[in-house]
TrEMBL record:
<dbReference type="GO" id="GO:0016887">
    <property type="term" value="F:ATP hydrolysis activity"/>
</dbReference>
<dbReference type="Pfam" id="PF02374">
    <property type="entry name" value="ArsA_ATPase"/>
</dbReference>
<feature type="domain" description="ArsA/GET3 Anion-transporting ATPase-like">
    <location>
        <begin position="2"/>
        <end position="181"/>
    </location>
</feature>
<dbReference type="InterPro" id="IPR016300">
    <property type="entry name" value="ATPase_ArsA/GET3"/>
</dbReference>
<dbReference type="InterPro" id="IPR025723">
    <property type="entry name" value="ArsA/GET3_ATPase-like"/>
</dbReference>
<dbReference type="InterPro" id="IPR027417">
    <property type="entry name" value="P-loop_NTPase"/>
</dbReference>
<dbReference type="GO" id="GO:0043529">
    <property type="term" value="C:GET complex"/>
</dbReference>
<dbReference type="GO" id="GO:0071816">
    <property type="term" value="P:tail-anchored membrane protein insertion into ER membrane"/>
</dbReference>
<protein>
    <recommendedName>
        <fullName>ArsA/GET3 Anion-transporting ATPase-like domain-containing protein</fullName>
    </recommendedName>
</protein>
<dbReference type="GO" id="GO:0005524">
    <property type="term" value="F:ATP binding"/>
</dbReference>
<comment type="similarity">
    <text>Belongs to the arsA ATPase family.</text>
</comment>
Length: 221
């Protein structure tokens, strides 16, 4: 496939770890089967002749397929362990269970020798305005506790925080807009109350309008 980058959106931690174990498990299984060739090769030949199977299902054909499969699995394992070709990005939310699962995943990836140095913390509640809701204040305080733990545990990782939005991110334009936060950290709006705050908000809005106008101009061309 002629792509510069391929992204796999994996299942939750337990399923992902089993998926990552599969190439190594299959490689060991194939190696075991190949080692039994000398012991049962003659029996396999007799069985194929007994049931009148053609060369397609003969001993040499089956062993050839196993050898080919083993080569592919070895190549997959090699690519998994090459940091220039493969890296794993952990996506989590600022809660206890997610922090625990992320730590478990990072430890297992280290055992598999798979590169990982990026963590995305999703659904973060930022203090965009003066928050009046007691529930939101409590959630923000709880989230901040676990965010601090993420930074303490993974001080050598690249950590990106993404905001909790009031709507779903669906559609190409919404995805493009949201994806900017991967390159430029999300900046919550300043609190109201001073001229300086309003000027900063106006400046941010002008930048967003300028970007939108540039995209519109490209579409018109």
């Amino acid at each position: 496939m002629d792509y510069s980058c391929i992204v796999f959106d994996t299942a939750p931690t337990g399923h992902t770890l089993r998926l990552l174990q599969f190439p190594s498990t299959l490689e060991k299984g194939l190696a075991k089967m190949m080692s039994l060739k000398s012991k049962f090769g003659g029996l396999l030949s007799q069985m194929t002749r007994l049931f009148g199977m053609d060369d397609e299902f003969g001993e040499d054909a089956i062993l050839g397929r196993l050898e080919g499969m083993k080569d592919v699995i070895e190549q997959v394992n090699k690519q998994f362990k090459d940091p220039d070709m493969t890296t794993f990005v952990c996506v989590c939310i600022p809660e206890f269970l997610s922090l625990y699962e992320t730590e478990r995943l990072v430890q297992e990836l280290a055992k598999f020798e798979i590169d990982t140095h990026n963590i995305i913390i999703n659904q973060v509640i930022f203090d965009d305005e003066d928050v009046e809701s007691k529930l939101l204040k409590a959630r923000m305080k709880m989230q901040q506790k676990y965010i601090d733990q993420f930074y303490m545990l993974y001080d050598d990782f690249n950590i990106t925080k993404l905001p909790l939005l009031p709507q779903e991110v669906t559609g190409v334009e919404a995805l493009k807009s949201f994806s900017r936060h991967f390159l430029s950290p999300y900046q919550p709006l300043c609190k109201r109350g001073t001229v300086e705050d309003l000027e900063r908000r106006i400046s941010m809005l002008k930048v967003q309008i300028s970007e939108a106008e540039a995209e519109l101009e490209k579409l018109r061309k």
